[in-house]
Amino acid sequence: MTSPRRTGRRPGSTATRQEIVEAARAEFAAHGFRGATLRRIAARAEVDPALVHHYFGDKDGLFAATVTLPDEALGRVLAALGDGVDCLGERLTRTFLGLFEAPATRDQMLIVVRSALTHDVARDRLRDVVEGTLLAGLAGEIPEPERRLRIELAMTQVVGLVLARYVLVVAPLCDLPLDDAVALVAPAVQRHLTGPLPAR
């Protein structure tokens, strides 16, 4: 005699935690921290909402588990820094935009950028890229005391383009081919990195 087939949401398992994290990444990428709900995340993961609370406590705990930059992202940024400052603006712009174009990294990058304005954890992750990866990676290329200022000025161009193209989805920026978007913004990024600064 066979047992009756169980219905309803799946119980917890060794894979459940990761499935919830993946569902949360999709939800946070689409709606940001404030717009995401634990109930929708549970529905995406096909689990009972109580399991989300069991594994992560609350939305802040779940968010902290999902708002991580992909290892691939940091590796690609470091690779872009490795060929000197000539054409660095083009390489950085193309690398950052590419992270939002690639399916493997898009959701995690969108989570960080969407939520950086409203959530300390996301803001810290984004700051780590600017103050950690870029400052350290360009230590031998751009001298102090200008290095930090130049990198922050350059990133205003890149992050602004990312917000307009991938978060706000502003036309015509969001419709431009990647090469065209890079060609329009990279010269300004390069100028901030290596061009003359106003006397202070």
TrEMBL record:
InterPro entries on file: Homeodomain-like_sf, HTH-type_TetR-like_transc_reg, HTH_TetR, Tet_transcr_reg_TetR-rel_C_sf, TetR_C_16
Source organism superkingdom: Bacteria
Domain HTH tetR-type span(s) in chain numbering: 14-74
Residue range(s) of DNA binding per entry: 37-56
Keywords noted in UniProt: DNA-binding
SUPFAM superfamilies per record: Homeodomain-like, Tetracyclin repressor-like, C-terminal domain
Gene Ontology terms, MF aspect: DNA-binding transcription factor activity; transcription cis-regulatory region binding
Pfam families: TetR_C_16, TetR_N
PANTHER family in alphabetical order: HTH-TYPE TRANSCRIPTIONAL REGULATOR RUTR, TRANSCRIPTIONAL REGULATORY PROTEIN
Protein name: HTH-type transcriptional repressor AcnR
Encoding gene (name): acnR
